[in-house]
Write a structure and sequence with these properties.
- It is a single chain.
- This protein has 9 helices and 20 strands.
- By secondary structure, the protein is α+β, with helices and mostly antiparallel strands.
- It folds into 3 domains: 83 residues, Elongation Factor Tu (Ef-tu), domain 3, CATH 2.40.30.130; 150 residues, Threonyl-trna Synthetase, Chain A, domain 2 (Threonyl-tRNA Synthetase, Chain A, domain 2, 2-Layer Sandwich), CATH 3.30.980.10; 106 residues, Diaminopimelate Epimerase, Chain A, domain 1, CATH 3.10.310.40.
- The strands form 5 sheets. A 6-stranded antiparallel beta barrel has the order 2-3-7-6-5-8. A 5-stranded mixed sheet has the order 16-17-18-20-19, with helices on both faces.
- Strand 5 and strand 6 form a beta hairpin.
- Helix 5 crosses helix 6.
- It is elongated.
């Protein structure tokens, strides 16, 4: 049986222990100690890493009452070794895990949402809820969770006796037998084996980064502590940069973006009108019954389509329009009435490293090789 130092004091960073076993395994050595501060992977929290003497601890797992450390070098059985955990990584896990308890408890208290999945990943914590939640509900829960953080109340971890446990309300993802370790944080009580902070204030900040509907509930990406600060600082820097591009201060970006979108819509409408005029001009010069391959300098994909279809409508023959685009040339192919250009499109792509396709009457794509004259000669031979 391994004494779990992290259960009674999650702030232990170094410790001395006796080596009970050391066995070669794939990828290193399996080491068992009489006591350890290394947390084994479990409950959504990654394992601690660090060192045991000169050996690096690569992974930590639990099997019943025994904790096994995977190291990159052997240790002397019967000897004493000093353990040192990677404290920055542990502190980060404690911030994420304690923050998750506070937010999950708040969602449960406010809306009856159960936490049905939790994982401390990179760069964010993943949380899955049992029910769908609105943006307003998530914002309310985030605000109240951060109020609990600012209250800076003690976090309590303990194993109650069976009688006390029977009269204690707590959250749990599954029915538990035997001793149950409870964690109280920010008004929430939950069964948990993980490591936690001493006070809610040490969480610093809880921020829901993103959310999406997932199965019957929601999947949240959450950052706490230093991760939350880094995320908010990055978002703020990005927002300031956007403000400079829009010549608008932070706090007024939405109206500036709306003006930009309205201006873009007006420009698109003007461009469409000009492209229609251009298409009419090309169609007026086209010869009835004759396939055409034309260079339409400056046209975008929609412009190429408009010109090709206008010419085909007048001439009754196939037409291909080309312009600079992609890695070489952009093209639009319009067929004669009742025609099918899909095989022509495939041949064109094969000949000039192209990508694209469409329906029988119209195909569009781009070519990575070939000049306009080469493509024109190729098409006029097969149209």
């Amino acid at each position: 049986m391994t004494q779990k130092l992290y259960e009674t004091d999650s702030y232990v960073q170094t410790f001395a222990a006796q080596v009970l076993a050391c066995t070669p395994v794939q990828g290193g050595f399996s080491v068992v100690l009489d006591r350890t501060a290394f947390f084994p992977e479990g409950g959504g929290q990654p394992c601690d890493t660090g060192t045991l003497g000169a050996a690096r601890v690569l992974a930590v797992h639990t099997g019943g009452a025994t904790i096994t450390h995977t190291t990159d070098a052997p240790l002397t059985v019967g000897g004493t070794v000093e353990g040192c955990i990677d404290w920055p990584a542990r502190l980060d896990a404690m911030q994420q895990h304690t923050g998750e308890h506070i937010l999950s408890g708040t969602l449960h208290r406010l809306f009856g949402a159960e936490n049905v999945g939790f994982h401390i990943g990179t760069p964010y914590v993943r949380m899955d809820t049992s029910i769908p939640l609105t943006a307003a509900q998530l914002a309310q829960a985030e605000a109240e969770a951060n109020a609990a953080v600012r209250a800076d109340t003690p976090v309590r971890c303990w194993v109650p006796d069976p009688e006390t446990l029977a009269h204690t309300e707590y959250r749990s993802k599954k029915a538990l037998d035997g001793d149950v370790r409870l964690v109280e944080a920010g008004g929430d009580c939950c069964a948990c084996c993980g490591t936690h902070l001493a006070r809610t204030g040490e969480v610093g900040l809880i921020k829901i980064i993103s959310y999406a509907h997932y199965k019957s509930g929601m999947r949240l990406a959450v950052a706490c502590g230093q991760r939350a600060y880094d995320a908010v600082a990055g978002i703020w820097a990005d927002t300031e940069a956007a403000g400079r591009l829009l010549s608008s201060p932070v706090g007024s970006l939405a109206p500036a973006l709306e003006r930009l979108q309205n201006g873009e819509a007006a420009l698109k409408a003007r461009l469409a009108a000009l492209q229609n005029t251009l298409a009419d001009a090309y169609a007026a010069a086209a010869e009835p019954g004759q396939p055409a391959v034309l260079w339409v300098d400056g046209a975008d994909g929609d412009g190429l389509r408009r010109v090709a279809m206008s010419i085909t409508a007048k001439t009754g023959a196939a037409c291909c329009t080309l312009a600079p685009g992609g890695q070489g040339l952009a093209y639009a192919l319009a067929s004669a009435p009742g025609g099918d250009l899909r095989e022509t499109c495939k041949a064109l792509n094969a000949a000039y490293q192209g990508r694209g396709g469409g329906k029988p009457s119209f195909c569009q794509g781009s070519l990575a090789s070939g000049s306009f004259e080469q493509v024109k000669d190729f098409l006029l031979n097969i149209l």
